[in-house]
Amino acid sequence: MKYCNRCVYPEVAVNLFIDDEGVCSACRTAEEFNQLTDTFWEERKKRFEKVLAQAVSGNTSNYDCVIPVSGGKDSYYQTHKIVSEYGLKPLLVTYHGNNYLPEGDYNRDRMRHVFNADHIVFGPSVEVLKKLNRLCFRKMGDMNWHAHCGIETYPIQIAVKFNIPLIIWGETSWDVSGMHDPDDFVEFSARSRHEHSLRGFEWYDLLDDLGEKLTEKDLMWAKYPEDDEILKVGVRGLYIGNFFKWDPNRHAKLMQEQYGWKCPEKPFERTYRRFSNLDDRYENGIHDLLKYIKFGYGRCSDHVSKDIRSGYMTREEGIQLVKKHDHVVSSDLGYWLDYVGMSEEEFWKVADSFRDPRVWRNENGNWVKDNIWDE
């Protein structure tokens, strides 16, 4: 297994490329962004203000924009920009997948008050969610498909329904794999939603399962609006990460100080960061464990790689954190098995079927792989 010689990403990381000098595409892109000056970002801010003014001036709805929010630090930062800095009136929209940590519940519900904003929170029935957890775990190795779908579908439905043409998203996918250059100005797209976030599956692929009976009525929230509906309203999804320098460590500290946003009291088992994914107890837990099982690296590798590129730690320090966290079978596995009524034996039988043969080999009944600390 080859690893990037600057961060800790393996060559099998999704959409990643490692060049002849041993540097991954994400580090190359970060290199470009780290060279951008304050003058560059000031020009980007002016461009954002121009786009914002155009979008708001033609808007006849009661809201200036939709902001999809989970209650995380990025949700607060997006809303802070729109409400506190630009004085606009957003409609906050949340998909509730029934996976919140207590601090996540607190942060989400607090947004309505600290930003004086209207807030729609939608959650499918718990029995439908349990069926989707089991079905999608068995079908694609991802019990959280419903969350990815709800987060990237329900806000678009609301934008169409309320005739709101602008949606404000947060971070772009620049630093995940180095897919985009600074001048690409990535916007939200139905293609990215379908191919990346939804793993190529739509609501209709989940009907007619013999074990988990779901109907079209159960999944109305998962239906992406038709093209003519989106065009009629002119719905457009902007990432403010295109226009403002993105630093999650700085944003988390700012949101704590300014709005009382809370980190979890209990550390996560599979990563060292404490300010990400509080809206979903499994994102830093067994959902991420499945990523490790599939591709041989987990969220700790993601966080370490980002923090190395931003100068918050050295590669050597990062490798020690990966060695500590990436392989851990987190205790939320037991919570999830009780929630969906599945045995641990079935979990491992299904999970092992998704192991990438480029990464894993079975030696005497044990799954093993090459590790970065063996370089």
What does this structure look like?
The protein has 375 residues and is mainly α. It has 16 helices and 7 strands. Strands 1-2-3 form a 3-stranded parallel sheet, with helices on both faces. The chain has a two-stranded parallel ribbon with strand order 4-5. A hairpin with a 2-residue loop joins strand 6 (361-363) and strand 7 (366-368). Helix 3 (73-85) crosses helix 11 (248-259) and helix 13 (299-309) packs antiparallel against helix 14. The radius of gyration is 21 Å and the shape is globular. The model has no long low-confidence stretch (mean pLDDT 94).
Summed up:
The chain is mainly alpha-helical and 375 residues long. The protein has helices at residues 25-34, 38-57, 73-85, 102-114, 126-140, 145-151, 154-161, 174-177, 190-197, 227-233, 248-259, 286-295, 299-309, 315-325, 332-340, 344-352, and strands at 65-68, 90-95, 118-122, 166-169, 236-239, 361-363, 366-368.
Inertia-based shape: globular
Report the average pLDDT across residues. 94
Rg on CA atoms, Å: 21 Å
Uncertain regions spanning at least 5 consecutive residues: none
- What is the topology, as strand order, of the major beta sheet? 1-2-3
User: What does the largest sheet look like?
Assistant: 3 strands, parallel
Give the % helix. Answer: 40-55%
Helical element count? 16
SS elements, strand count: 7
Structural class: mainly alpha
Strand content: 5-15%
The ordered string of helix (H) and strand (E) elements is HHEHEHEHHHEHHHEHHHHHHEE
Terminal CA distance = 9 Å
